Amino acid sequence: MLLCTVWGLQQVAIKLANAGISPVWQAGLRSLGATALVWGWASARGVKLWSSDGTLAPGLVAGLLFAGEFALIFWALEFTTASRGVIFLYTAPFFVALGAVWLLPHERMRRAQWAGMALAFLGVLTLFGESLLLGSGRAWIGDLMMLLAASMWAATTLTVKVSPLIRVPAEKTLLYQLGISALVLPLLSLAFGEPGVFAPTTVVWASLAFQTVIVAAASYVAWFWLISQYPATRLSSFSFLTPVMGVLAGGLLLGEALTPAVFAALALVGAGIWIANRPSPEAAPVPVR
């Protein structure tokens, strides 16, 4: 629940920092700072980072997916609001559940899960309908980018779950992603011709610091540790709390308009993900490894 609160605030922090730092450049700075922090944390705890454990290939894949995901997230918030963006981003459990059908056969989809996924998809269509039919400007571009970012987040989760990354410390899994994105994102920013830091203020730097220290370093170490301990679909059921926090944060901190469509989509996505990922009545408790 704490992680969901932090991630709900993430979209607001990105939006605030976008006012003074180009989106992809900002994402690169965040990854660079978080890489240094997680590296220091891992070194202090004696975590083995250089052992030969078969994680290089999946680590590279996870890192590229992570870079693509956050380039899309930061750029998308130039077009859409934080309130809308967080709803689209947290359709990721939808993609996790679909991917698990093929990649995690021991986590089979039940009828209730398919029904939940249908509800979540209906919520996405509700927001797209508002963008396309009610004249929400270019919001649909950002919405679509957020949806693609959600699919890449799900792909990262599944990559970790089905590869040797599941057996290594969470810090090493995270460093693959942070380190690779710290290299890729600045190059991508230069390729796009972004100006970089163009209007630094106290709020801009504080927003970047929050993302770097709290979100990208501390919360992600905790997240990948959780992935290594619990079933991916079961764990993802908690994610529906994040859009709630994100929508509230967007409305309260940024003054974003919270339309009926936003609340309808929030209810549908949240309810759908919860229904899809709740344990069946006959299921035995899942032991923690």
Automatic annotation (TrEMBL):
GO terms for cellular component: membrane. SUPFAM superfamilies: Multidrug resistance efflux transporter EmrE. Residues 2-127, 141-277 form the EamA domain. The chain crosses the membrane at residues 29-47, 59-77, 83-104, 116-134, 140-162, 174-192, 204-226. Pfam families: EamA. Coiled coil: none annotated. Keywords: Membrane, Transmembrane, Transmembrane helix. It is a multi-pass membrane protein. It comes from the Bacteria. Its main location: membrane. InterPro entries: AA-Vitamin_Transporters, EamA_dom, EmrE-like. It is found in: Membrane. Belongs to the EamA transporter family. This is EamA domain-containing protein. It comes from Aromatoleum aromaticum (strain DSM 19018 / LMG 30748 / EbN1) (Azoarcus sp. (strain EbN1)).
